[in-house]
Amino acid sequence: MDNQLQKQYFSTELLLWYERSKRDLPWRRSKNPYYIWVSEIMLQQTRVDTVIPYFHRFIEKFPTVAALAAAPESEVLKAWEGLGYYSRARNLQSAVREVHEQYNGIVPSDKAEISELKGVGPYTAGAILSIAYNQPEPAVDGNVMRVLSRYFALEDDIAKPSTRIGIERLAQGLIPAGEAGAFNQALMELGATVCTPRAPQCLTCPVQVHCAGRLAGIAEQLPVKTKAKPPRPERRAVALIVGSGAHGGQLLIRQRPQDGLLARMWELPHAELPPARSASAAEGVTPAAAPARGAQRRAARGGVPEESHDVVMAFLREHLAAADGIGIVPKAWFMNTEHVFSHILWDMFVYRCEAAAAALSSEAPNSLPPNYRWLNVNEMEEYPFPNVFLRIINEYKSLL
DNA sequence: AATACGGGGTA
DNA sequence: TACCCAGTATT
């Protein structure tokens, strides 16, 4: 088929399909650029169904650029709690403050200006410009790369930045005049609901008859994408430090460093354990004969780390004393849990602990390091926690 | 070009 | 279990 006709057909049919099939999503009910912006940041690497409740709460709490600009960062992180990729929240607020101060609260409609804002990359810039301002800019995300790879039977590796650039150029050329916002959303909507990563529903696809990938029988093999490295395993001993006396009903928590993983979030004190003795090394078997990592993980989850609990508890006590000057007395194993980041896998062994006598003394009530606090477990709203620690704390609360 | 950066849905 | 999600920043 003539290439130009294939493109024209695609844009026309996709737009018609979208107008009759689009989902009623909260951020589609207005063109408020601030709402669009917030939704697009939340939607980065995150599913629509996950975002919806966060979006409602966030807009209710921070209804305008001015409101978000004026909020304490901890409140913003708390509103983002559980959503992940917390630099999105910190960058969003930083950028909103920039818009508040430099642009009089008006989200820029200029591509260069909006692209300079923190957290606004090529996808988000194109999404805001097209959806809020109807500018003919492409918005190429994972959905769009998949849909176009299949429709045009492109076999370039979508993990490569150069491929994204090429698809952006292709997508820009597909935008119907005056329909940038609807068209970009239609492309993503098709990828999310019909042209899915696995088992695409080609029979219900509005552009199936000219889809080169389907016609070649390779739709399910596309897009080509090099697979990510598996996360590296880490073992961590976690201290669930239960207060007594003046700190009865409280847990000892600490704030993470300013930068890096889970920056500025709060957590239970913990320490990394030495790497587990790998089964293959220990038994001298080849890696191919070694048990799958999942089997090793299940072994860890079963109740004990390789070391005895006594050894791990001693390690935890010594580490917190040396690193943070915290005196604790580990009492007993509490639970194990596992947490998977995209690049790290935490095997966590949680121990119920008490504060050492010195930390309870009324003579030294302020001896905690500045990033430590006693937390009332029923008043957690000021402290944003990553989900992994929320799970542990909620398990503890459920047993009270 | 490769890596850091969360958490969860789904087949 | 493997894949991937309305990606961006940093190195």
From TrEMBL:
Signal peptide: none annotated. Binds 1 [4Fe-4S] cluster. Its cofactor is [4Fe-4S] cluster. Gene3D superfamilies: Helix-hairpin-Helix base-excision DNA repair enzymes (C-terminal), Hypothetical protein, domain 2, Nucleoside Triphosphate Pyrophosphohydrolase. One of its GO terms (molecular function) is 4 iron, 4 sulfur cluster binding. The keyword DNA repair applies. Residues 42-193 form the HhH-GPD domain. GO terms for biological process: base-excision repair; mismatch repair. It is an enzyme of class 3 (hydrolase). It catalyses: Hydrolyzes free adenine bases from 7,8-dihydro-8-oxoguanine:adenine mismatched double-stranded DNA, leaving an apurinic site. InterPro entries: A/G_AdeGlyc_MutY (IPR005760), DNA_glycosylase (IPR011257), HhH-GPD_domain (IPR003265), HhH_base_excis_C (IPR023170), HhH_motif (IPR000445), MIG/MutY (IPR044298), MutY_C (IPR029119), NUDIX_hydrolase-like_dom_sf (IPR015797). Pfam families: HHH, HhH-GPD, NUDIX_4. The keyword Hydrolase applies. Its EC number is 3.2.2.31. Keywords: 4Fe-4S, DNA damage, DNA repair, DNA-binding, Glycosidase, Hydrolase, Iron, Iron-sulfur, Metal-binding. Belongs to the Nth/MutY family. Adenine glycosylase active on G-A mispairs. PANTHER family: ADENINE DNA GLYCOSYLASE (PTHR42944). This is Adenine DNA glycosylase. It comes from Paenibacillus psychroresistens.
